[in-house]
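User: Can you predict the 3D structure for this chain?
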Amino acid sequence: MSLALVLMACSSSSLSQTIQASKSEALVNTEVGQDVVVTGSRPVIIKGKVRRCTPQAGDPLDRVKVSGSADTRGWEAGVHRYMAIVPRGDKFAWVRDADQITGPAFWQRVGILMENYRFRGMAQDSLMCVGGTTTYPYAFAGFRREFDAVPYRGKRLRFTLWVATRAAGRIVTWLGSRSRSGLRDGGNTDYGNFRGDHLWTPILLETGPIDEKADRISYGFNLQGSGDLWVYRPTFEVVEDYVGDGTDRIVFGKGS
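Assistant: Here is the predicted structure, written as structure tokens:
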């Protein structure tokens, strides 16, 4: 399928409504550039600047040992392998990434040179973040959900989120389905140029109907290089009212 990327102008009320950042859960304050202030949480944007990623106290994934070296001989050298933190029994483990299916509720931590990154998993305030301190070109880290595609075959899917960044190397988001032979539906923003400093910006990705041969759904986001990425209310849903030609969509835009 073709992938349509639309860079929105200063506002998109329909996009904001789709993302559903309701005032009962978040205040959209246009005076500070689409800040999202979550009740009971320290603001991510302070005086117009995005703060650094801070881990959530007590997150058990922070206790997983992630180590390596600064070896720069190439993609496959040392820790320059795509790694993931996933459940193993009643604990969690840092393992070589193999597109592990861990269910629709678990956020895997994924990346290369992950010891250079800080993470904050989703808590009650629906905020997540990734912060990095390396400029090595192959380094990245982020969050991913991967789960069985069978219940979603023939349906159209949507992934929406708000993002805010500080000096970010580059931000990538994705939504898609796969089979053993590769990508079946969807795509990502890997070819985009979303980097640097951004106040709260909504992103929408849609794909489908999901191929009947798809065996897994994957969606998520990552930070490539250094900087900080904050994410608010990442939401996955089935699009019940879609009428169109099946073209995939990726839309960036500021909320109004």
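The two ends are 30 Å apart (CA to CA). DSSP finds one helix and 18 strands in the chain.
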